[in-house]
Amino acid sequence: MFALIDCNNFYASCERVFRPDLIGKPIVVLSNNDGCVIARSNEAKTLGVPMGALAFEYESFFIQNGIHVFSANFALYGDMSHRVMTILQEYSPECEIYSIDEAFLNLNGFKHYNLQEYGLEIQKRVRKSTGIPISVGIAPTKALAKLANRIAKKYPIRTTNSYVMHSEEQRIKALKWLKIEDIWGIGRKHSIKLREVGVKTAYDFTLLNDSWVKRNFSIVELRLKHDLMGVQTLKIEDVKPKKNIATTRSFERNLTELKDIKERITTFAVSCSEKLRQQHSVCTSIMVFIRTNYHREELEQYQNNIILRLPFPTNSSIELAKFANQALELIFKPNFAYKKAGVIIMGFKPEDEIQLSLFENSNPKHHFLMKTMDQINNSLGQQKIKLASQDLKKMWKMKQARLSPRYTTKLSDIIIVKC
DNA sequence: TCTGGGGTCCTAGGACCC
DNA sequence: TCTGGGGTCCTAGGACCC
User: Fold this and answer.
1) What's the CA A10/C1' C12 distance, rounded, in angstroms?
2) Distance A26 CA to B12 C1' (A)
3) How does pLDDT run across A375-406, given as a tens digit for each residue?
4) Half-sphere exposure of residue A346, counting CA atoms within 13 Å on the CB side?
5) A219 sits within 7 Å of strand B by its CB
6) For residue A99, what is the enclosing H or E element?
7) How many CA atoms lie within 13 A of A15 on its CB side?
């Protein structure tokens, strides 16, 4: 059996942990730049706030309905996630952290356990230790555990969100209940295509012919089908080093000047480099993109991207910033109002297996310089040391009007308890 | 005024090899 | 009229996830 554990309304729940006065009250969390809603508490969902609701459109709705609004506080959510995951790892030798708020546990070999009670125990423990409410779905395969979790959320039993799918009858009933577009791994495009051939539920999907599924979709959907049929096809995955690393942002205002965008691109490249060094890799290609605001159709639009193959593999912030700026100059066109840009690095290799080139190589001094920079930034706080071409005056600030404190990661923000 | 950010995997097709 | 057979590697684009 597998368990899928999912934190309920994770970002909203994180905010509530440190604001117990908001228990039972509606909460929404906004995206970067306070643009749109990316998380909602159950109360906010009930009031009818949709996912992705535009903050400026809903401003008065929030006020009228007493909805508490937060800017995204990823420092807090990342740390809370780490705490939850650390606990979950105690409950199985094999744990896959699937996303910031979800994990699979392998429960094969737990057949003498009462899994219903085990699920409840995990739930209680996470709640007690972190304050985060979770849902637990337990079933014979990963895809079915996803489904069991959905049932657990939808039909809580006396305020507990835990469901175990033991029997074949339960499996069939659940599959008949699950709409095709709600299957994990079947998105919008696929569900439209499936509905066209009369497949309305997950159960219908499992009745399809294998080769038809493979031919019309791919091996991924075929594996999913088998997993839904109760045949363990998807396995617990190990953490793998990333294959791409991206830093992309919308700007809080339009940028037209090359020098302004250069500064942003430099900062994005530095951020990518830091993540790259953390996983001890070097990269061989870099992509830079820029775009105008595609939501504003009345303005003249332009977007472009370019991939540079680097003359040598590197993870130096200095070198990657330089290449990123070269790339930018190749695609930048004046007289456009740019709204978003990004840097994506690709083609990773382990940093201790670099193939040296006869002609040009990464500056060996950078290795030590970067190590020192990372150490300083890790101990004294991010961005304490920057490249001079970055924004030294802190001109750029994301719009984060309603940011909560970093309760768990910043010394001055830790709450004080008086007793 | 205002619209997020970061990932993965698969496939078809092209270029190349013998 | 008619044009082999068997491979590998790479990439862009499209689907999906949170």
Assistant:
1) 35
2) 48
3) 998 888 777 888 988 887 766 777 888 999 99
4) 10
5) yes
6) strand A95-99
7) 25
